[in-house]
Specification:
heterodimer, A: about 220 residues, alpha/beta, Double Stranded RNA Binding Domain, Arc Repressor Mutant, subunit A, four-stranded mixed sheet, two-stranded parallel ribbon, 8 helices, B: about 160 residues, mainly alpha, Butyryl-CoA Dehydrogenase, subunit A, domain 3
Chain lengths: ~220, ~160
């Protein structure tokens, strides 16, 4: 290639790169277009899972749902990417950020935190709950009424395994839908608070919100 | 641990700018929006069947390239006027823009394969191997298309 041709080629290349930079500048039409893709995917049912952040007294929670119901509620400290990757592996990789399907969950949580709602009417998707015993434990837990408490041993017994309080504790500790499935209502039989996936301070806060009658708050 | 497909939203976030730039250049900013929607909706439909070790960038650009071809066919059927080359994304190019506008207009008039090769190379910054994968030809053919495209464009920048 002659020197002149090489120069001309590089002039073209420089101009093409300038164009690329010009298209890059300014407000972000690609981000807008991507939001429209996500919204459309959710509305047309092409996405299997949708998620959205919601405000709460604990900070920004992440909610995720399938067509069957609420799948996951994550506390602010949880790593969003890890949460989404786990859902991707266990449920479906067709996940988009869109709020439509989660409006009801957001509203019920707002009412709960304001003390105006004592039970959730949301449909739940139990796909992320591991093992049949874990499911039984969380179903038993979901029946504990507002302001009430059970011990780990009682929950284990109701789930069919009277000696399984440690296993019940593990199942509660990995509850994918805390608050909505009220694992904060399960305490040590001696009255101690026990553990909580979202931190024991939050467990205390939730029990106080509900006016639970516990020996030692 | 075996490699996993990223959650679709992460895939969308990671590739949206590249696909947007590609489509703006391939079909102009007016039709880019529709092509963008079509590209990612098609990608979402096929997503669960994709192998986790796939080259996601080349895959999504292959889809975008096909959607751009569809748009071009539709355009010639409907004989729509070409998008105003002075405005990209609703913003006006600034200097040294006049010559660049002519250049981008010329990019849109290149034969499809050359156009895609040029756009993927200079907007997508793709290596020849990935350009070839995206437009469905050999690496050698991709190289040739790129060279032919640049040769045509040279006449725009440096009038003979």
């Amino acid at each position: 290639m002659s020197t002149r041709m090489t120069d001309e080629h590089s002039m073209v290349e420089r101009a093409l790169r300038r164009g690329a930079v010009a298209i890059d500048r300014g407000n972000d039409p690609a981000a807008e277009a991507a939001r429209r893709v996500a919204r459309r995917a959710a509305e047309e049912g092409l996405a299997d899972v949708v998620y959205t952040p919601v405000d709460s007294p604990f900070g920004e929670l992440l909610l995720a749902a399938t067509g069957r119901g609420l799948l996951r509620l994550a506390f602010p400290e949880e790593n969003v990417d890890s949460v989404l990757e786990r859902i991707s592996q266990r449920v479906s990789p067709r996940i988009v950020e869109a709020s439509g399907r989660l409006e009801e969950a957001r509203r019920e949580l707002d009412e709960y935190f304001a003390g105006r709602r004592h039970s959730f009417e949301l449909a739940l998707d139990w796909s992320l709950v591991g093992g049949p015993f874990g499911r039984k434990v969380l179903r038993v837990t979901s029946q504990i009424p507002y302001g009430g408490v059970l011990s780990y041993r009682e929950v284990a017994a109701d789930a069919g395994s009277p000696r399984g309080s440690r296993a019940a504790g593990n199942a509660l500790g990995s509850n994918p839908m805390p608050i909505v499935v009220p694992c904060h209502r399960v305490l040590h039989s001696g009255g101690g608070l026990g553990g909580y996936g979202g931190g024991v301070e939050r467990k205390r806060w939730l029990l106080e919100l509900e006016g639970a009658r516990t020996p030692r708050l | 641990m075996s490699k996993q497909l990223p959650p679709f939203q992460r895939f969308l976030d990671a590739h949206r700018d590249l696909v947007w730039r590609f489509l703006c250049s391939a079909v102009g900013p007016v039709e880019a929006e529709d092509c963008f929607q079509e590209t990612f909706i098609a990608a979402l439909r096929a997503y669960p069947r994709l192998r986790a070790d796939s080259n996601l960038r080349a895959w999504v650009l292959t889809i975008a390239h096909r959607k751009a071809l569809d748009a071009h066919r539709g355009r010639s059927r409907r004989a729509l006027p070409i998008a105003d080359p002075g405005v990209v994304d609703g913003r006006t190019h600034d200097a040294p823009a006049a010559r660049d506008e002519a250049l981008w207009e010329a990019v849109q008039e290149l034969p499809a394969r050359q156009r895609s090769a040029v756009v993927l190379r200079y907007l997508g910054d793709l290596p020849h191997r990935e350009i070839a994968a995206a437009i469905g030809c050999s690496e050698e053919a991709a190289r040739r298309s790129l060279h032919d495209g640049l040769t045509t464009l040279r006449k725009v920048v440096v009038p003979v």
